[in-house]
Amino acid sequence: VDSLTTMPSGAGKISCLNAVVLGEALASEVDELVFPSHHFSSQALVPSPQKYLEIYQRSIDDPAGFWSDIASQFYWKQKWPQPAVSENLDVREGHVYIEWFKGGITNISYNCLDRNVEAGLGDKVAIYWEGNDLGSDATLTYSQLLQRVCQLANYLKDVGVKKGDAVVIYLPMLMELPIAMLACARIGAVHSVVFAGFSAESLAQRIVDCKPKAVITCNAVKRGSKPIHLKDIVDAALTGSAQQGVSVDVCLTYENQSAMMRESTKWQEGRDVWWQDVVPKYPTTCDVEWVDAEDPLFLLYTSGSTGKPKGVLHTTGGYMVYTATTFKYAFDYKPSDVYWCTADCGWITGHSYVTYGPMLNGASVLVYEGAPNYPDSGRCWDIVDKYKVTIFYTAPTLVRSLMREGDQYVTRYSRKSLRVLGSVGEPINPSAWRWYFNVVGDSRCPISDTWWQTETGGFLITPLPGAWPQKPGSATFPFFGVQPVIVDEKGVEIEGECSGYLCIKGSWPGAFRTLYGDHERYETTYFKPFPGYYFSGDGCSRDKDGYHWLTGRVDDVINVSGHRIGTAEVESALVSHPQCAEAAVVGVEHEVKGQGIYAFVTLVEGVPYSEELRKSLVLAVRQQIGAFAAPDKIHWAPGLPKTRSGKIMRRILRKIASRQLDELGDTSTLADPSVVDQLIELADH
Ligand code: WTA
């Protein structure tokens, strides 16, 4: 304990953890601290704050050495020359760049599959697949997965996909989705998975941006009892992208018989190919394309504060080392675990913590195709019992929606196998945290509330289960090698108990390297707001014990059911409607979704507002982005509150949307203050 009190001052927030170690914090906040059981801690990878501080300190003092030691546990065809990291994060000193293990030659697919098979895990289950319909399931061992990946990789090579080419994947949670990702990685192709809830227009936009050699999809998927014709969406997207000058030669389509037979699928001869007709004919071995650690692995489009989605680019080596390590420690992974992350591979969570992180550790991963409440709200726990899931990782929105349905759906299942719970995507409110902890986890399982982003590749702030007491709703402390700082509006670091903007000092191996085709936007968005730091876009406060509390986005991005949506994207979808003149979208608190989408719309002169028009405005958003982005509320706005220079004052709109009408603040600077009264009057129109 003595050594902890002599922590270097650079680790200010970490030394706060000492208070917990020393028991100082306990007197006042005993209700808030949830301690891991002795049983859990004694078997944990990181059993105490002391151990964490020891490892953390080394990771900060010598990042290159620290990460090199971990990286050495993977297979490298050729080791990276020293040093392991080279970077500039300060825009004032030139262009921003981050390189980890550059010059090292490896392959992430090889490390996920071949390496594990060679280590004797060939017969271990890699994927437990649970279909939407009760009773439909399948498994693949690591050897079988490797063979499937090789067959697809051979097919892709055969149709001309080469190292560096993009491949768009638009698939639901079939086993074929991770297979497709791993097959691309095996041949050095850059996958871009598009969540299969995105509309044809959004898919087309992404295809136009990354110009893939092939698109991989399936004919349909069942969500609940309803089939959704994904192939029709892809057809429309490919027509759309061709009109914008980007045509794709190959559309590999998996026949998902549980949802739709091939006879009813629309087909374009020459371009469309049934997966089942071609892929199984290829050899089950395929040479690996060895790539540089800094060669791109994937592109994933995400929302920002302008209408155009950003192509977040991750490279191979650092991402590999980082996702594997964060997975292992944040979930206290043991080889006997059965791990289930409910995220879709269409989002970053599915990339890092369905596919890469777990498989790099040789874990058994459960992939569930369907909706978590189908056929009823007990489905998740039914699955947990069926597969003896030990680590369950989901989003607060699901926790809240299941909490609403009542404990009986949970308690009728055993859930004895559960050991660790996880949360991601948005802040988890303390009451949902407690329900998750007490009811789902029977007060036995630590909750890893993992804070991170598409851009960060892996967890940055997260509990390590068993290592220290938790506070419901706090993501707690930084992962190894991560230096979070909280800054004020001027970019000045604030120490101790405070709140402000969350930035990160220095790089970590899993950081994204650029926005595809727009390095300038990368620098402007992330490195210019607070020079010298990576700016996360999130607000954060730190309490007197050094725990971090994420408070949500501070930019024009909202988090709806853990899905990241740019308000500008929704606005541009609304104004594409011929009868909509202007739109302003804000987030409002939503009991289940975390945030809901609240849209103020001004109609074209003379058009009356009606229920029918409201529906068609919502439809415009569904068609342009996807159903998950549909506004919860359309508020008719004959006028919007604007400053004299024409800027919409969103602050006022947020207050109106949340009905905090006594907190509107100063409206005198508006060009026409009377619009505010008008909006209030129309609030429940
Ligand atoms: C939010 C998802 C609080 C945050 C991995 C971030 C969280 C955005 C948490 C990134 C958490 C994610 N606590 N907020 N544990 N995890 N967020 O890119 O606002 O889809 O900036 O990545 O989600 O969303 P993204």
TrEMBL record:
One of its GO terms (molecular function) is ATP binding. Keywords: ATP-binding, Ligase, Nucleotide-binding. It is an enzyme of class 6 (ligase). This is acetate--CoA ligase. It comes from Cephalotus follicularis. Belongs to the ATP-dependent AMP-binding enzyme family. GO terms for biological process: acetyl-CoA biosynthetic process from acetate. Residues 120-507 form the AMP-dependent synthetase/ligase domain. Residues 52-112 form the Acetyl-coenzyme A synthetase N-terminal domain. The keyword Nucleotide-binding applies.
